[in-house]
Amino acid sequence: MVSVEVKNITKSYEKVQALHETSFSVSKGELFGIIGPDGAGKTTLFRILTTLLKPDNGSATVEGFDVVKEYKQIRNIVGYMPGKFSLYQDLSVKENLEFFATIFGTTIEENYHLVKDIYSQIEPFKDRLAGKLSGGMKQKLALSCAMIHKPDVLFLDEPTTGVDAVSRKEFWEMLMRLKNVGITILVSTPYMDEASLCDRVALIQDGRILSIEKPDNIIKSFNKKLFSVKADNIYKLLKTLEKSSDLETVYPFGEFLHAIFNDGLNENEFAKQLISEGFQNVVVQKTEPTIEDCFMDLMRKKEEKNN
Fold first, then answer.
1. Assessment of whether the complete model's pTM goes beyond 0.90
2. For the CA atoms of the chain, what is the radius of gyration?
């Protein structure tokens, strides 16, 4: 059963086109990731699906309701956690949660079981002003407020941006528990490593969907030789590799450069070549692709097609 359906959605801000005929569907109870860098169109997409923006063209439904014609029904059945903390910073933790419960005609007590796992972690600070909370605690409060009215669909826009690694891990554990009780979750993130935690992901860049697949299938579709390369002067190495005819593409990846080699290139010989050019402590090793490598390859293909 389809929970969210998007058909050829287009949205522009004056001369900037944020979404280009975007289409996808999300099944009921699915944890669906929208993965892409800042400016890819994720926030615009979520604002349209939560009825805060109207699309220029195309259509979308949430639980069968049209995002334009039936926006009132949608607002009663979705929870939305925007990327920027938007709760009332001069209200306490408890006052914020009570406020959102009252708006939807419910109480904390009535739906406490929905937010217990999350809210219990910040309940000891229920009298603290929201503006005085840490990043991780603000995140948990925002999710509690988005959940207190028992939504059918939850939209989370970059919920882990700016929080520490432990809070990120805890947050995704919370999402897994929510998914297990049947809530449809759409989450956007610029963090490629979070893609593997989703049932399916849509890779998006410049308002265009590059691929929609299960994370494992995206990685399996990467059928090229990928190598990690490094040396003492990493910037000089990058510029040298960019000029090499033996490589399809190269880009920074942590302390290494990830490079896609043309078929037939021997990494040992290439390492010797770099050493002969004056590079020291050269490492060239075959490596397994990640979602980020697949994303970079899809971007390169899109650019080549456009050119």
1. no
2. 22
